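no rush on this but wanted to send it before i forget. what follows is a protein written twice so to speak, once as letters and once as structure tokens for the fold. mainly i need to know what kind of three dimensional shape the backbone takes. thanks a lot i owe you, the record is right below.
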Amino acid sequence: MNKILKNSWALFTGMGLIMLAHGYQGSLLGVRAVAEEFSLTATGFMLSGYYVGYFIGAKTIPGFILRVGHIRVFAAFASAASIVVLLHSIIVNPFSWFVLRVITGISMVSLYTIAESWLNDRSSNKNRGSVLSVYMIVLYGSMALGMFFLNFSAPTNFQPFILVSLFMSLSLIPILLTKRKAPTFKKISGMSLKELYKISPLGMIGSLIYGTTQSALFSLLAVYAASMNFSIFEISVVTFLLAISGAVAQWPIGKLSDSFDRRLVIIYTTFGASFFAFCAIIAGGQMYLPGELATTKHWFYIFVVLFSFCSLPMFAIIFAHTNDFIPKEKFVAAGAGLQFAFGLGAISGPFLCSLFMDIIGSNGYFIFLIIFHALIGVFAIYRMRVRDTKENPDSQFTAMPQTITPLGMELNPTTEPIEEPKKVENSNL
């Protein structure tokens, strides 16, 4: 572990700063949208732009990297992300922000792809699991800490946008000063949705629906909290708890999925997430009862933590379940196909959830999450009735961040072998 940190500290530092900025920006835009009195539908439309850009970038960025190399692409898109943040404070309307969010999505998937390509290049069969673990901790931890910068200045000021841009620009320094040669980029081909559905209907449909729920979950939580009159500090607390709980849950939920039929784990966790989302609605209502009948926000925080604990490991479980039905050499291609399905769902999530909130009220946020989590559970019950479980000794659960790209999936110790990286003298990255 010490060797991993020593050889890759610059990369982890750069990605930590990027995720600090990313976590801060996501909450900042949601709170600012409420302050600017954007309609909920307009807010959902604007926030969905990130996932449109992420989906576009995932398809186009590999070609850029192959043509001009890792360093140039990283510098270009980190700079673009930094500039776009500042433009949010200058041009304030939903459609302009939608366009800017598309550019942010393209930029972020570029940075993830390059970082994970670099990590793959310096990983071996012995340390790939450790590398992925450190990477996930850096991403989730930095994103969660970024939420607390909401307290730096009022979201209606321009200073928060400058701070986000500052973090994004600082991330360039350790990456660009590395002495190590950039890795050779290997483009990964995914499976078509038709082929993926044939292999694992639950894997494909589950990824599609979960993409819809997960994108809405992170995009609109700050909007929900602001509409419920949470203070800036309380918004930062609830968004922090959501990210941290999801990271911690990966290991215990994963162990359960390796010990039992993964579909059972999917069923229990999705219905568990739906139950705790319902409890969050009840707790949210009780906070505003008159006099002594009112409860503190602690119960709401607890139910958000439990909801996240059940919900956020879902994509990794679906990935492992799909791998149960395919040979080892197809794991990465299947993962790329699942990411494609996830991305298709993610594009629509914030907009659909905002429609629920517009029609039902603030609690439409959790009602949306209840319905779509339950849909995954119901489909998993159906699949258990028509298909027997299958033992695959090559398949196991691997904890991974929600932002993982197909390249990052190669860090999974159960996928295709990677040759031992060559030793380079005086390496700083």
